[in-house]
Amino acid sequence: MRDWFYQLTGKAWIALLFGIGILGWAAYAQFKAGADTHGTAVEDLVAKSGTIVSGSEITETTKRRRGGSTTRHYFVLDAKLADGSTEKWRVDYAVGRKKLEPLIDEAVDVRVDPSDNNLVYEVKLKGQPVLALAEVQKIMEIKDKAAASSATDKGTLIVGAVALLLGIGGLFVRRKIASGYAAEQAAAVQTPVIGEKV
């Protein structure tokens, strides 16, 4: 029984890492939700100009390895730039179709995040803002707070704390069993009597 328990506690590090991961994710989500800026920093955005040729609504479904799936919705604007090349600019679904439909066949100025599939943060039509930077930042703030809420709900925190405690407890018990084994082996070794040849 002790050998089986020793083998079982050998996997305690998995529970420890799992607990640290869950609690770390919760802390990061809470930190991100409380940040002053949401989304990409303004200085990292790139200004571009072009004519919107067409737009489409995209639904992306991603299957998870362990079952279930996640679905994302967003808009994509196809833009023709001044040099003749075309680009796809992604717009958050929360912006809404009504703001984007009037932009078709119009020349616009945008600020996008190239590190996030050209996510649009600002759109100006004839110098007037159609989509303001503050609006997109507010959308990102709402998303960050929703992620923090799901990451820090009681169930998630309890699972993380239990896994962490199981991991720590398992490693402690394993160490005690290992020291017991070492003590038994030390006692089993016969010490030679003085004058006896070994």
Q: Would you write up a description of this structure?
A:
The protein is an alpha+beta fold and 198 residues long. The protein contains 5 helices and 6 strands, in the order H-H-E-E-E-H-E-E-E-H-H. It has a 6-stranded antiparallel beta sheet. 17% of the residues are buried.
The helix-and-strand class reads alpha+beta
- First and last CA, distance: 35 Å
**Number of H- or I-type helical stretches:** 5
Which sequence of SSEs, written as H and E, runs from N to C? HHEEEHEEEHH
Percentage of β-strand residues: 25-35%
Helix content: 40-55%
The major β-sheet equals: 6 strands, antiparallel
Radius of gyration: 29 Å
Please give the order of strands in the largest beta sheet. Answer: 3-2-1-4-5-6
Question: Which residue ranges are poorly predicted, with pLDDT under 50 across at least 5 consecutive positions?
Answer: none
Mean pLDDT: 82
Shape by Cα distribution: rod-shaped
Q: What's the assembly state of these chains?
A: single chain
| Strand elements, count | 6
List keywords for this structure.
single chain, 198 residues, alpha+beta, six-stranded antiparallel beta sheet, 44% helix
Q: Quick summary of this structure?
A:
This protein has helices spanning 2-9, 12-33, 97-100, 133-151, 154-188; strands at 46-63, 69-81, 86-92, 107-113, 119-125, 128-131. By secondary structure, it is of the alpha+beta class.
